[in-house]
């Protein structure tokens, strides 16, 4: 389970009359956040029956919860309702949790027939979704520690920032502080281009883009990993910290700070693009062959396609025929066949020799390479 689940101190409970519940009333539970703001108050007020008094409860570990029954899980026309599980709260109301939440509960505690769920629970929120969290679960300690830090409101101040140190946000993400730099951006402007050749003789417009500097910002880098294992980096720029960071994970400079700074120098927020530095490079054959073999082609029943630059101002579309194992291009449109004529090229060597493919290196104003465009 995520470790950035919010465990509030105070709950607010509203009700609707429901004959299909054990208590004859179904609850909608919301909470006060660390600023004292009642979250989701508008939807809560529109849902609840105001004739039934609401409750304010302390979100303390409580035992005596009982699984009731499944709710939802149907689709009728435009009426779609996900499957939820009704749970009885010992304070005499029922509410709903997700199937995922139920599976997590059953992984960490027992449901005893006639007695309910073993152990004590607290209410938590994963984004907008309510979760019932067993305090005996292995994740609870980490989640509870995170919430205590959040509730203490000891936010990191600008004067305390250390280059290369690691800080934790309210979302429980860890960011490395890189320093304070001019933040770069582009601004679009719509201008008339002098044409007025449409039916109503209206002026035509075009967009121009201007490079701007937004002033000094704090730059942070985050290293993370996709679910499939691929690693990536994210950039965060802040004019001021506000209440973004709640804790210092480590005041020591990370060991790979120089590598992270090299990555930062290649971002357009750090330095503007410089089109005058663009460089066109001819593919070495082996590299081109590896590039073609590794590309994720757009597949169909007859083959796949890829695009290549044969010169800075010309991009070709090359097709690969599954049956003949050969490459071809499209030529003249044949009206009778309502299709393009296939012009076979041959194998990858012939493609390379005929088109002399090139790729482009794009650079920033600071001289760092921004990206390679194949």
User: Could you say which overall geometry the principal axes of the C-alpha atoms support?
Assistant: extended
Instruction: Give the helix level as a range of percent.
Output: 10-25%
N-end to C-end Cα span? 40 Å
Radius of gyration: 30 Å
Summing up helix and strand content along with how strands pair, one would put the structural category as mainly beta
Placed side by side, the strands forming the largest sheet appear as 17-16-15-14-18
Quick one: how many beta strands?
Answer: 26
How large is the share of residues in beta strands? over 45%
Which blocks of ≥5 consecutive residues have pLDDT under 50? 73-80, 298-302
Mean pLDDT: 86
Main sheet makeup:
5 strands, antiparallel
Q: Counting H and I runs of at least 4 residues, what is the number of helices?
A: 6
Question: Which characteristics define this entry?
Answer:
374 residues; mainly beta; five-stranded antiparallel β-sheet; 6 helices
